[in-house]
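Internal ticket #5521
Category: modeling
Description: The requester needs a full-assembly model to guide mutagenesis choices. All entity lines are attached below as received. Residue total reported by intake: 380.
Assigned to: D.W.
Attached entities:
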Amino acid sequence: MDRVREALRGPVQEGGTATARLIRSIIDIADAIEALPADARAAAERIFTVAVTTGRLDAPAAMHPWITKLFGSVEAVTAQRIVRVTNQVTLEGALFNDLRALRPMEVKGGDDVRTAIAAAANDPFDRPLEGTPSDTFGRIKGEHGITASNVAKYDGYHGVLVFDEHDPLAPMDGAKVRDHLATCRRWGEAAQAEDPAARYLFVMWNCLWRAGGSIVHGHMQMTATRGAHYPKIELLRRQALAYAAADGRDYFDDLWLVSETLGLGTVVGEARAMASLTPIKEREVIIIGRPGADETSLADAIAKTVQAYRAAGVVTYNMAIYLPPLSPDGEDWRRFPPIARLVDRGDPANKTSDIGAMELYAASVISSDPFRLADALRNG
Ligand SMILES: [Zn+2]
C-alpha cells in the first residue's frame, strides 16, 4: 500500500492517470481514493463509500490439492479480502473479492457461439422487408441497417434496428455505431411525429442469448414511451438534481473526475468512458457525453468498448442508452448528458446465469477488476 501511496503523491500527469496507473487492483481502492488530489478525493468521498472486510475459512487437508490447483495456494482462500463499494448518490453497489478479481480476463465458448451464429443464417432478418413487420410510420433506413416493428411489444412504440450484417460479432467501428444510433433517433422522431407524447426514446442492444437476445442476427431495439421516462432513467435524473442541490456540483462531472483521476477513465472524442466502480455486472463501462449533445457523440467510445470486449473474448453483452426526452416535458434535463452503459453478460459456455438473488435484490457480485478493464479500454 505504501508504494502505491508514494507513487500517487508524485507529480500528477495527464490529469492524474499516469500515476494512478500504478494502482492495479480494485482491492486497493480505499488507498487509491485516499491518495487522490484534494478536489477528486472530496468528490470521491461525496459519491462513494468503500468498506473492506476479510472472509475466512478452514479447509480440511483433503481439499488442499484442489484448492491449490484452482486458486494457487491454500492461503489465498483461507483469508479473502472483499471490497464493497457503494455509490451513495445512486445507491448502486458492488462486492469485489480479490480471489475473483485476480482471475485472468478470459471467456470460453466463443468458438461454439460462432458456429451457432453461422448456423442461424438465412433468418427473417436477412430479408427484413418480407420477414419483419413495419411500423405504422414506415421504415427508417440507415447506411448499415433498417428498422422493423417489434412483433411482441414492450411498449406502445417498439422497434428493431436490423443490421445489414447477419453476424452480431462482425467488426464494429465508430462509423457503424454512429449510423445505427442516428437511425434509432430518426425512428424515435418518426414515432414522436405520430404521437407527440411518445417523447422518451430508449435504445438498447442485447447481443446474443445470455444478454436476452432471442434473435442471433445483429440488431438493436428502440422504444418510445409516454408520460415520463423509464423509472431507472428518471431516478438518475432526480438523483443528479438532488446532488447538485446539496453540493452545488454536477454529479456526472464529479463521477468523471473521480474515475479519471483514479485511472479508470478514457476520453474518446467528446465522450468520457469509464470502468464503473459499482458495475451492475462484469466489466461495466459507462460512457457520458456533454449535456445537450446527442448520443451519436458516444459512438466512437461505444465502438471502442465493444472492441475491448471482443479482444477479451466477450461475445455477449448489453448496451443501453439514457437520453433526455426528444422534446421538452417541463422537467429539468439541462444537465442530463447522453449516457451509454455496456455490460459483459458472461461466458456463453456457462449454464449458470450471471445474475442471481444478490444482483436482483441486494448488490452486484463482481469478478472482473475495473482497473484491468480501464487498461483494456485505453490500450484497445
Ligand atoms: Zn441473419
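Resolution: model delivered.
Comment from assignee: The first helix runs from residue 2 to 9.
Ticket closed.
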